[in-house]
Amino acid sequence: MSQQSSAIRIERNKSRAKWRTRGFLVSVWIYPIILFAILYVYINFRSFLMAFQKVNTDTYEFEWYGVNNFINFISDLTKADNMRFVVTNTLVAFGAGLLISMPISILISYFLYKKIYLSGILNGVLFLPTIISAIVWVILFKYFVEYGVPALCKSLNINYSGSLLSDPNKQFGTILFYNMWLGLPGSMLIYLGTMTRIPASLVEAGKLDGMGIMRELFSVTIPLSFPVISVTLITSIAGFFTNQLNLYAFFQEFADFRSYTLGYYLFALVIRKTDTIQLYPYASAAGLLFTVVAVPLTLLTKWALEKFGPDAEF
Amino acid sequence: MLLEVMMKKLVRILSVILCLFIGASMVACSPSEKIDKTKTQLYVGVYRGGIGEDWLYEFKSQFQELYKDISIEEGKKGIEVIVRPYKDEITGVQLLSTMPSAIEDVYFTQDVDFAQGVAKGVFEDITDIVTEKYDTVDIGEGEKTYSIEDKIEQYVLDYFKINGKYYGLPFAAPVYGMMYDVDLFAERNLYYLENGKIGGSIDNPDDVLSAGPDGEKGTFDDGLPSTWNELIALFDLMISKKSITPINWSGQHNYQRNSFTRAVWANYEGFNDYIINNTLNGTLRNGTVINDDNAYLLVNEEGRMAAAKASYDLVKDKKYFYDTSFYQTYSNVMAMEDFLISRPSWDKPIAMILEGGYWENEAKDIFKDVVDQTSEEYARENRRFSYMPVPKFIGTDGVKDQTNDEQVLVSTLDSLCFINAASSKKQLAKDFIKFVHTNASLSKFNSISGVTRAYKYKMTKSDYDHMSYYQKSVYDMAEKANFKIVQGSYVTSRTRKQYNDYFKYWEANKVSINRTEYDEIMKSFNNNPELTPAQWFNSFKLNYNSATWANKKLP
Lengths: 314, 555
Description:
The structure holds two protein chains of two kinds.
Chain A: H1 2-50, E1 53-55, E2 62-64, H2 68-79, H3 83-113, H4 119-131, H5 134-155, H6 168-195, H7 200-208, H8 213-238, H9 247-251, H10 262-271, H11 280-308
Antiparallel strand pairs in A: 1-2
Helix pairs in contact in A: 1-11, 2-11, 3-6, 3-8, 4-6, 6-8, 8-11, 10-11
Chain B: H1 2-24, E1 40-47, H2 54-66, E2 79-86, H3 92-98, E3 106-110, H4 114-120, H5 127-131, E4 135-138, E5 143-146, H6 154-160, E6 161-162, E7 165-166, E8 169-170, E9 177-181, H7 182-187, E10 191-192, E11 198-200, H8 228-240, E12 245-248, H9 255-269, H10 271-279, E13 282-283, E14 289-290, H11 302-316, H12 332-345, E15 350-355, H13 359-362, H14 364-373, E16 385-388, E17 409-411, E18 415-419, H15 426-436, H16 439-449, H17 461-466, H18 469-480, E19 485-487, H19 494-498, E20 510-513, E21 516-519, H20 521-527, H21 533-543, H22 546-551
Parallel strand pairs in B: 1-2, 1-3, 12-15, 17-19
Antiparallel strand pairs in B: 3-18, 4-5, 6-7, 8-18, 9-15, 9-16, 10-11, 13-14, 20-21
Helix pairs in contact in B: 2-16, 9-10, 9-11, 11-20, 11-21
């Protein structure tokens, strides 16, 4: 009897412990799940519906509008004023990231990994942007461009007038430069972290075979870092349509149209304080169209990188 | 073993603490204020901007005094007005979505989609207090009893009246335009004389000054440029012989420049013809009847050309404006600082600034800084500034001669007040709104803030005397214009609201030329020297004509 009751007691205790564990897990997870359901699932579902609606400007109710928002957006993309700037800027920003920022990040990360002369100081300077708030950098950059650059030009007897940020012909280039510079540390952190995991034995073996520093970069470092590089490439494809180039931080919704990207264009449409609700359905339709393009492109890029990328592991 | 048990307990304790933190994050932080539980509270949300809140604290004291012996709630006597200043939290969509659960009963704010708020049912119906005649006063029409409605222009009432009911009221109407340093003008003899030459001073009684823009001698604008050509001639004199920078503005914000553009347009056309651009309904001075079918004809208004010409002229010579006026970092505060410190401290002072009517109030602390750097002579109460009326376009190259003589003031601040439909003290809130809109309160508001309101009112002598030279000049102008202040943001045309995107180039400050959009007229002329006022003006006709109007689609 006592054996039986002790067995029952043990079972009961086990069951209680299981329920306590479940209760604890639920109490920890319930709040984030509710937030996810409201702030992600519901919002995206609502946004999806909105793409097929329009706002009645008398009642401010949403009404069925079919696919007209999509038609209007595609028409605007091809015919509306300034859209050629928006699309071109988006492509240029993407290209600059892919062809300039990424190679430079990899190269600098590599030299930091190889501990070149003054790499310690360079480390600190290059990673400074990541520890200081983006808004602070924006303010500093604005003042530097508008006051520092003219003063510097004056001291070097270079003829300079106007402001790189106020002149619409120079604004986009200036913002692009800012983004490329600020974007370096983030990706460098990731590449550097990956490179430091490369087994020293591999590198030593290569050196014994007469491998030089640049040979090591292309034959060992890049292939072994390729998984991280491919993740960067895939996320940049996914972010193609949402990249705002920090324009809002600089200009709020008042950037010159010649600096717009697709991401900023949609954001500026809906961020104004008045008369914006009528544009929500249009913006939702544009977002859906971007998703329809971005998803297969991202998956295709992933497949291609996996299929044709170097097959190196460590 | 013991260590393991202790570690497990520690992990449990830490997990519980973590859960508590997560739970605590669900509770919003709200400002805690001490309230008097023996009284009924009335919460008033106010936008913290250039107008300030001093006026509201004055009304708070007065209203509390009025109600000190009145019981609104059982067991309580008197009321306590709680003033809650906010910034963007009580503007836009954010306000409309939080109002149902907000504690505020009354709001004085800006940048709110009024029609949307009414449609959502967040604004209380205040028709009863707007139409009730309760304020007995003589405002120049003999002693009469006025309702709030009686004091407001019809087109403004049309904006706030939806389906026959009022849901809000206009709040502040600060006048935008050119503000000039009267002391500098007087010191350097920058006033026009009767003989058409520049060289007079208002401080020299021997100088016979010209009549000014209003054409009447002996008024506050004597000696000021009467025509646009005279203004530019004055600018040329300032830069060539007087070592003065004519004008300044904030580069960071564009609303001062855009508002000035509208002021030029409105002054050229007159009150009625300008407002029709918002209502798309009415009869122009030339007899043309405008309605929803033919309102595209409004793009022929020469006032748009005048606005383009004025904007072009102000920036065509870079010496006309201060070096950093177009810098992104050059805020309105920095522009005001430079304007105020330049006369006492710089070799090349700045004569004028493009700003809103609240600027002197907003610059209160800047005046103190100027005094700290210089002397009491430059304190706010010792300095003279004034609003410069927009000159007429007579004999201006490229612009037909102006025929309108009516001087028009323009306010583009989308400012309004309303009661929260979710308020539990609606009657008290209504009483407060009524109180704030008596002639005495309108006078007091103007006196304290220096900002006009778009209501007919007459300031009391003591309130008027309390104001600075600048504030008096603005009130004088508004009174002379019978408080017909154009509120540029009050668009009542259903067509304009329905086809928001089609009308994006309707206002004078934004156009599309050869499929390139130019946003913000003065900056566009500054950055694109090849752009001309004629191109700007002609673009309106390309975008708005019978063909595009039919489908409400831009070409």
